[in-house]
Write a structure and sequence with these properties.
The protein is built from six helices and no strands. The protein is mainly α and about 180 residues long.
Length: about 180
C-alpha cells in the first residue's frame, strides 16, 4: 500500500477518533427531569463512564413522574415533547434545519463538558497545548502490534497487541 494512502487512512482514523471523543453520542436528544439534555450533565458523564450505564441514564431522562420506573408512555411523551419543541412550523415533520437545531441543542451541554475537560487551568480558554495534549500519546496507546505506527492491524478491536487485555493489548499482561 502506498505511504500516501496509508497516511490518509491514519489521518482519517485520527480525525474520526477526535470527533468521537469531543462530540460524543448516546441519548443526546433526550431530556432528563431537570430539563437538561444528553448524557453529560455535570458529574453524570463521569458516573456513566464508571458504570451507571444507559439504563440509569434512561430513567433520569424519561422518568417524568420520578417514581423510579419507566413506562413506554413516559418515553413516548418525552420524545413527542422534544419533537414538538423543534418542529417550529408545527407541521409534524422536522426539516434538516429544525433537526439541526434539535441536535445542536442536545449536544451543547456535552460540547461544553468536553471544552471544560480540555481547559485544564479553568480559564475558559483552550490553548493549542490543551487541545493537543489528549492526543499526545495516541500512537503509543493504540499501537497494539508495537510497530510505532497506526494501521488497520491496530484497529481490529480489543484483545490484540501489547497490553493487559483491558483495551490496551493482547491480554498477555504488561510484561513487555
Amino acid at each position: 500500500m502506498k505511504s500516501g494512502y496509508k497516511a490518509l487512512i491514519i489521518a482519517g482514523l485520527v480525525a474520526a477518533t477526535g470527533i468521537a471523543v469531543t462530540a460524543g453520542t448516546g441519548f443526546a436528544d433526550e431530556r432528563g427531569r431537570d430539563g437538561r439534555y444528553g448524557i453529560s450533565q455535570g458529574d453524570d458523564d463521569r458516573e456513566y463512564r464508571r458504570g451507571r450505564g444507559r439504563g440509569a441514564q434512561m430513567l433520569e431522562n424519561f422518568d417524568t413522574d420520578g417514581d423510579g420506573q419507566l413506562t413506554q408512555a413516559e418515553i413516548d411523551a418525552v420524545r413527542a415533547d422534544r419533537f414538538a419543541e423543534f418542529d417550529t412550523d408545527g407541521n409534524g415533520e422536522l426539516t434538516l434545519q429544525e433537526y439541526e437545531a434539535l441536535w445542536l441543542d442536545a449536544m451543547r451541554e456535552r460540547m461544553v463538558d468536553r471544552f471544560q475537560n480540555l481547559d485544564n487551568d479553568g480559564d475558559a480558554i483552550v490553548t493549542s497545548q490543551e487541545f493537543v495534549d489528549p492526543f499526545a500519546s495516541m500512537v503509543s496507546r493504540m499501537d497494539h502490534n508495537g510497530d510505532g505506527v497506526l494501521n488497520t492491524d491496530d484497529m481490529t478491536g480489543r484483545g490484540q497487541g501489547r497490553g493487559d487485555g483491558r483495551g490496551r493489548g493482547n491480554g498477555r499482561g504488561n510484561d513487555d
